[in-house]
């Protein structure tokens, strides 16, 4: 949702995801927050979090993709990312849960704790940094959500049409689905059904509790049948749309029902869904990308 590429200012090297930051160097990093909190930070500076995975400090990341997910409970269009330069001072690598200095690194003379990517400490598999002293951090800019990216599919699916959609799942579950077909979820925001999206970015976030390198996205084509738009919480047909003769419930992007702001579809009958193939993540310099990045309105 935010810019996917950013350059460091002159003289400030980016922090390589797999390389520990060098003691005493300055690096470009990012901090995801709300627009309101960002204004406070820019006016008065950072305040360290009282606690967290790495203890007290200011949490940052070299990876814009990581920072842009926060705050987790904030609607995506209300998030911003602060672009900062950090003098990391003395750095301690914390690369496993239960590390003896996981939350006490500052007591041992370190200024920054660095959690490398894919070490198992962060579900996303992306790198994280914790800086003890806010005075080591200089804000140099703001990155706002790209509103154009929020509305890949603003139009309601047309009844009876076939669309390309995506379903994020684990590798083991993907194998079961490809062998035996989809099964309805027992419940969810839109009630019972199979949850999909025409937005690959949306599907690639799931399952939320699984590291990105263990996820897979199934590319499918769906005959949506009769479609009902559900565009607000507590819609009278939010979970009962199928009882009223609809085959698919559609939650449009940016309507406030989904934290990411991305569209969601719920298909009642799994027989309306045909798996085309699986899309596996691949790593590039510590970031996860998917081998297929095209978006299709209709399946060909």
Automatic annotation (TrEMBL):
It comes from Astyanax mexicanus. Belongs to the ARTD/PARP family. PANTHER family: GIG2-LIKE PROTEIN DRED-RELATED (PTHR36542:SF2). Residues 23-90, 153-239 form the PARP catalytic domain. GO terms for cellular component: cytoplasm. This is Grass carp reovirus (GCRV)-induced gene 2e. GO terms for molecular function: NAD+ poly-ADP-ribosyltransferase activity. SUPFAM superfamilies: ADP-ribosylation (SSF56399).
């Amino acid at each position: 949702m935010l810019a996917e590429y950013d350059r460091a200012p002159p003289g400030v090297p980016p922090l390589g995801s797999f390389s520990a930051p060098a003691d005493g160097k300055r690096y470009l990093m990012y901090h995801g927050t709300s627009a309101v909190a960002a204004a406070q930070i820019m006016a008065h500076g950072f305040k360290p979090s009282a606690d967290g995975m790495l203890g007290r400090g200011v949490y940052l990341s070299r990876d814009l993709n990581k920072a842009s997910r926060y705050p987790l409970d904030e609607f995506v269009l209300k998030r911003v990312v602060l672009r900062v330069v950090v003098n990391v001072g003395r750095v301690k690598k914390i690369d496993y849960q239960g590390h003896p200095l996981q939350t006490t690194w500052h007591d041992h003379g370190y200024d920054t704790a660095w959690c490398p990517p894919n070490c198992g400490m962060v579900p996303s598999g992306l790198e994280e940094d914790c800086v003890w002293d806010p005075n080591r951090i200089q804000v140099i800019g703001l990155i706002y959500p790209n509103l154009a990216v929020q509305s890949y599919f603003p139009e309601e699916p047309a009844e009876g049409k076939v669309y390309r959609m995506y379903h994020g799942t684990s590798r083991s579950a993907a194998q079961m689905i490809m062998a035996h077909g989809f099964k309805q979820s027992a419940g969810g925001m839109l009630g019972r059904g199979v949850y999909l999206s025409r937005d690959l970015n949306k599907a690639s976030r799931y399952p939320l509790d699984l590291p990105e390198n263990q996820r897979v996205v199934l590319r499918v084509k769906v005959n949506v049948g009769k479609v009902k738009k559900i565009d607000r919480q507590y819609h009278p047909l939010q979970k009962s749309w199928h009882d009223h003769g609809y085959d698919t419930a559609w939650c449009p992007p940016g309507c406030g029902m989904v934290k990411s702001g991305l569209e969601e579809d719920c298909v009642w009958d799994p027989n309306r869904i045909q798996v085309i193939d699986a899309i596996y993540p691949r790593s590039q310099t510590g970031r996860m990308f998917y081998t297929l990045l095209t978006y299709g309105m209709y399946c060909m």
